[in-house]
Structures are given as C-alpha cells and as structure tokens.
C-alpha cells in the first residue's frame, strides 16, 4: 500500500486536503447490520491503519461513532516514529461531527485520548448549551455553522489548528456533504466481494447537490478485493 502513502497531499484545493476512506460491497452497500466490519478484509484493515498514519486529523460522523463504538487511533511503533520524524505527533486526534451531541462520553475515544491528540467535537451554534458544556468536559469543542456543521467552516477550523490533511472515515451522510461542498480531494474506496447488506450507499448526497466527477488514479487487487484511489476532478476555473 506504499502507493497510497506516497501521494502528495500538500496542495489542497481549499482549506485542507480531505481524503475519504470507505469500503463497499459489489452492490454498493456500505454496511451490514449497521456496521462496516463484515465488508472489511484483513488487507483493508491494514490499509485503514496505514492511512491513519498520513492524517493530521481523523474526521468521523457521530452516527458512525455510535454504531462502531469508535476507539482511539492506534498505530504501530514504526508508523509513530515515521510521523514524529515528519514533525507530527505520534498519533492523530479524532474529530467527531455532531449536531445533537448525543454521545457516550465513557468511550475511550473521549475518556482516554492522549494529551497530544485530544478528541474534538465539531458542532453548531444552535446546539443545546447544556450538552455543549458537557462536551467541553471531555473534548475540545469547535463550532462550525449555525444549524448544521458546514464543511468549509469545519475544515477552516481544523486548518487553523494546523491540521492540513484530513482523513474522513464517514459515514455516508458526512462524506456526501463534503462531496457536495466540493471539499473531497481524494477517495480511497475498497470494493469487497460481497453482495447483500444495508440499503446504504457509500455517499448520501444532499438534495440538489449535483454531480461530482473523479479521476481514477490507481487500482490494486488482493484476495478478491479491489482497492481504488480516486481524486476529484476540478470544475473549470477551480484553482489547482
């Protein structure tokens, strides 16, 4: 998977370079019984961990945290050393997008995050003040948008904190919002040799969001699983 790690992500179109990393079945399903695990092979899991090595921050939606019981980012000692040689902390922090702030604060993601990678919550100006206060007891809280978390505002807030490479691990609604806002620079999509599952695609686009084109940059295959890497195709006039 060295091809993925070698990509130059230093020149984003906007605030940050945003990489989406998703897995789907042959029929496009992004989950089975609400979870991704059955779709993901050992090779995909290794890629999942390796991609976290390149991230300044891992971005994920609250529903994915709730369904998957998200934990802390864990990397090999080799990966940690490589990050530190590059001037990065040993592991990246996680940023959770949540308007409702209905989260289990007892999860290790919130209760045991290391000082160098404290978990962040990205929420809205209209979030329940009492829940915001509770969230601040466990995380760093970022406000990005009035009634919904606006992708551009969220990414600008992360960029202001020095997070220039954002790894978005879903879910599908969050990924769709970033695509619609023209903020997804790259999509790493694993195609698992499975059919049948939840009626849930890789990306759920907001209504009237239009169509976004991508360029296929690499194709790898191992053990009946395809690993596809795309980069977004800029609209005419979009700065490179």
Count of discrete alpha- or pi-helical segments spanning 4 or more residues: 8
Order of helices and strands: HEHEHHEHEHEHEHEEE
Which percent range fits the helix content? 25-40%
Share of β-strand residues: 15-25%
Please report the distance between the alpha carbons of the first and last residues. Answer: 26 Å
Whole-number count of domains: 1
Provide the descriptors you would attach to this structure in a database record.
single chain; 240 residues; alpha/beta; Dihydrofolate Reductase, subunit A; nine-stranded mixed β-sheet; 8 helices; globular; disordered C terminus
Word description of this protein:
This protein has 240 residues and is an alpha/beta fold. The chain has one domain: Dihydrofolate Reductase, subunit A, CATH 3.40.430.10. The protein has 8 helices and 9 strands. Strands 5-4-3-2-6-1-7-9-8 form a 9-stranded mixed beta sheet, with helices on both faces. Strand 4, helix 6 and strand 5 form a beta-alpha-beta unit. The C terminus is likely disordered.
What does this entry show, briefly?
By secondary structure, the protein is an alpha/beta fold.
Secondary-structure map with pairings?
Elements: H1 2-5, E1 17-25, H2 42-53, E2 57-61, H3 62-68, H4 77-85, E3 94-97, H5 108-111, E4 120-123, H6 129-138, E5 140-143, H7 151-160, E6 165-168, H8 172-180, E7 186-192, E8 214-222, E9 225-232
Parallel strand pairs: 1-6, 1-7, 2-3, 2-6, 3-4, 4-5
Antiparallel strand pairs: 7-9, 8-9
